[in-house]
């Protein structure tokens, strides 16, 4: 009897595995899912956890043992897509940037897109003209510290922030100049979040 119970318990464990998804704010969401669960099931769990309704811009990415990145296919079994053994670790990321961020209806969607832009700039994955990079960095600065205040923001205040893998002092000055003279909350045409958003 005991052996049958143990055998049943082992079979049950074999049908489940742990999965950790790193979110855009660097927090983690961990769950246990069935071995035959498809990607859509995991994605829906994450969206429910985040109360994310505008799902179409997002996806789940994983890295295989050869360090190659892949998007999880929602119509296929998770276990069959992963080339490693559980527990699995994946990341929620923006898969498609919205063409007009202002049209996004949900604040959480705008916040997650903001975090992705910030991440992609920092890692050098968002290729754009220097003028556009300076503007994006100024918006990020705006979201982090709010409006420019000479009493709070002394000379060189923007140097405390790392927006790119590397950048020149000239670009840094341009970022501060845009923040000082061109940006006044409530926010930008890009729909970036306000300083009251969670960090």
Range of helix content: 25-40%
Uncertain segments: 5-13, 186-190, 195-199
Q: How much β-strand is present in the residues?
A: 15-25%
Strand line-up across the major sheet: 2-1-5-3-4
Count of beta strands: 5
**How far do the termini sit from each other?**
54 Å
Count of alpha and pi helical runs: 6
Element order, helices and strands? HEEHEEHEHHH
- Give a quick account of the main beta sheet: strands, pairing sense, barrel closure: 5 strands, mixed
**Structural class label:** alpha+beta
Give the overall pLDDT as a whole number: 85
Q: Which term fits the overall shape?
A: elongated
How many whole angstroms does the radius of gyration measure? 21 Å
Pfam family, one: FERM_M
Organism: Nothobranchius furzeri (Turquoise killifish)
InterPro entries: Band_41_domain, Ez/rad/moesin-like, FERM/acyl-CoA-bd_prot_sf, FERM_2, FERM_central, FERM_CS, FERM_domain, FERM_N
GO molecular function: cytoskeletal protein binding
């Amino acid at each position: 009897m005991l052996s049958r119970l143990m055998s049943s318990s082992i079979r049950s464990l074999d049908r489940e595995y742990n999965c950790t998804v790193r979110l855009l704010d660097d927090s983690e969401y961990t769950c246990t899912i069935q071995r035959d669960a498809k990607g859509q099931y995991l994605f829906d769990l994450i969206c429910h956890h985040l109360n994310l309704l505008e799902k179409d811009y997002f996806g789940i990415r994983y890295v295989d043992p050869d360090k190659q990145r892949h998007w999880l296919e929602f119509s296929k079994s998770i276990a069959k897509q992963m080339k490693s053994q559980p527990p699995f670790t994946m990341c929620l990321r923006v898969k498609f940037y919205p063409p007009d961020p202002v049209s996004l209806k949900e604040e959480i969607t705008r916040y997650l897109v903001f975090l992705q832009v910030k991440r992609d700039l920092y890692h050098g994955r968002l290729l754009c003209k220097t003028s556009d990079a300076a503007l994006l960095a100024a918006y990020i600065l705006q979201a982090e510290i709010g409006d420019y205040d000479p009493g709070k923001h002394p000379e060189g205040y923007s140097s405390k922030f790392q927006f790119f893998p590397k950048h020149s002092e000239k670009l840094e000055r341009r970022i501060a100049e845009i923040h000082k003279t061109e940006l006044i909350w409530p926010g930008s045409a890009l729909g970036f979040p306000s300083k009251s958003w969670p960090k």
